[in-house]
Amino acid sequence: MFKNYIKIAWRSLLSNKGFSFINITGLAVGMAAAMLIALWIQNEISFDRFHKNIDSLYVAYNRSTFEGEVNCWSTTPNTLGPALAQEYPEVKSAVRVDYAERHLIEYNGKKLEADGFNADPGFFDMFSFPLVSGNKHDALSSSNHIVISQVFAKKMFGSEDALGKIIMFDNKHSFVVSGVMKPQPSNTRFQGDYITPWSFIKVFWGRDDQNWGNNSYRTFVQLKPGASLEQFNKKIINITIRHSKHREDNEVFLYPLSDYYLHNIFKDGKPSGGRVDVVRLFTIIAGFILLIACINFMNLSTARSEKRAKEVGIRKAVGAIKGALIGQFLIESVIVALISGIIAIVLAQVSLPYFNRLVQWQLSIPYGNPLFWLCMLAFILLTGILAGCYPALYLSSFKSVEVLKGTFRSFNALITPRKLLVIVQFTFAVVMIISTIIIRRQIQYAQQRDNGYDKSNLVYTPFSGDIKKNEQLIKNELLNSGAAVAVSITSSNLVTSQSNSWGLEWQGKAPDAKIVFDQIATQGDFIKTVKIPLVDGRDINPAAYPTDSTACLINESAAKIMNFKKPIGQVIDKDFVKWHVVGVFKDFIWGSPFDAKNPMFVMGPRSEWDNVINYRLNPAQSISASLQKAEAVFKKFNPAFPFNPLFVDQEYQAKFKEQQRTGNLAGTFALLTIIISCLGLFGLAAYMASSRTKEIGVRKVLGASVSSIATLISKDFLKLVMISIFIATPIAWYAMHSWLQGYTYRIEVEWWVFILAGFAAIIIAMVTVSFQSVRAAIANPVKSLRSE
């Protein structure tokens, strides 16, 4: 019997090649899209969850309240990790991680640039990163040890064994390779070519940061079995206050590492979303794309009901029961889903390189994993059953007597299930169109926002090698050579907010005030180089003003918060230094361009903090000419390292990558949604035109024009699309309004977006349907009426 069902199903597919092609193509595209999204979702939800100790791993967070607003952030003091490990028996280990700038590694004259980070010795005991060689327990035990990745080892040493090799770091630090790591998974934050011991930070910077107010490091904690997170957080809440002797008053708590990637946005001190919102969004999109493909199958299957009615009637007359007919129709849909699934795998594989560029991951289909094939089989069966359940129930419900007597008529009420399914399809398509427009407008809005300074011709080079000891010589030479018209040495670049502090004190500060300030240190000429408009006072210039060794600048937001009516000359106490304000500048964007501009504190010379040279290229000559001169300067004073100019305008644009990625994904899947919907609409229109051939013939004989007949066929579809637009509008408004609330700097959802999306949907639908309606309208009526 089962074999007979398959044979009948196969014959049915071959006898209706056009509709079978539409069904298979629509399902294949929908399944391929769902597969790709599923790969991405799996990568997202497994981010840093592969560690064997994941249930006991946590990230240390700071929390503080100001004017009723609770702020949380995951950078902590250098001193927090050791204090937690030493003072609390619940802590099994605490590991600090600090991401470093790019450095130069050399072996036997071969030089390679590498990215990496510093970590405590317990890093490999806490996290599951296997070593192919070396002992994980002591690989980071000495300040001259270094662990390198297997990929980097192959680049540097070829087929030689890397373990025990002595390499040079930045042309002045000697390291022994103490371990070689297996390649890290792509879905982890711990990426890099090397890991150096935490003790190397003191060697590299020449200082040991014991400041409880410097929140610049990540601290990860592993609790012992049986330890209660809730109880432990109550115990450590005041650790910073206690150790800083109330100079710092933020609270500390631990947050599960398993939630750190997906749930990293806090509101009022509690997790309120994050990356998980995007994951949920695309889970819904994947489900709807697949549903739309299934709706195509349902609609086309039920549209052919009159042609299959006699088949059902005869089968029932010879004894077929309803259950057997349902089984037969479900097998047909499963066969279609199976063929579609095979094609979907091919489509997904072909599309994967483009999709990887879109999501910025290196995803792959795990063909070698039996679980993948098991899931794929379940996916195909589920899709086949979902697509075939309604047609199977509908077709098997026909009464044999009515069918064989010729009194059967297909259901033609005002709103039929088939019409409802078309409405569902286009409702989602319109929602996707509206969402894509709004996402792209929000990105453009932030891109066009005034960042507060002149990005053109502004370049920065991170410190490496001998730059630090020659920083003043390099600055002078850049100016004297004509490569630059202004130079400023700072602790951070101008694109990424890298440091903040709560430890600022000033006269009149409220005792309970807890305010975070962005902070940066400069050797001088900060305003001149960056071209930030000054509101009051002057730039920091130690060469002209010897007292500027303790000078500082603040932005307008800081002056307002500090309630300085006359800021110039005011004293700000930080790190036991009394800084005097010499200038106030306009706010500029240092963090996210979608957020409000923060209060900022720019302090005078802190040579131990110097980390970046910022220089404005000479506008009187070409950029390439200026860069050639700048390269000659850096090569002169830092010959062992390659010249590394980074353009601020390009780095600033990189801030939008995440939102652009979301917009591109939404746009891509909106296009797929429209294609699949139109494919089904095309097939449905073809069948509707075919079923009304005689009616159209009679109308033409009676004098009906081509346009009137085309309108007759198209108007029913137009009504359905317009209903979809009315339903989609409030749904899209609510979804996009909620999404925009995550941005401080955002657009308003405007009415014209909905009108534009509605017109687009109508035009797309009408173009799709018009081909079939015009084709039917211009057909020769003699052919359709010959049999009458």
Notes on the protein architecture:
The protein is α+β, with helices and mostly antiparallel strands. It folds into four domains: 1-47 and 283-410, no CATH class; 54-260, no CATH class; 419-449 and 656-788, no CATH class; 458-655, no CATH class. It is built from 25 helices and 27 strands. Strand 4 and strand 5 (110-114) form a beta hairpin. Helix 12 crosses helix 13 (370-396) and helix 21 (657-691) runs parallel beside helix 24. It is elongated, with a radius of gyration of 34 Å.
What are its keywords?
49% helix, alpha+beta, 4 domains, 13-stranded mixed β-sheet
Briefly, what is this?
49% of the residues lie in helices and 17% in strands. With 788 residues, it is an alpha+beta fold.
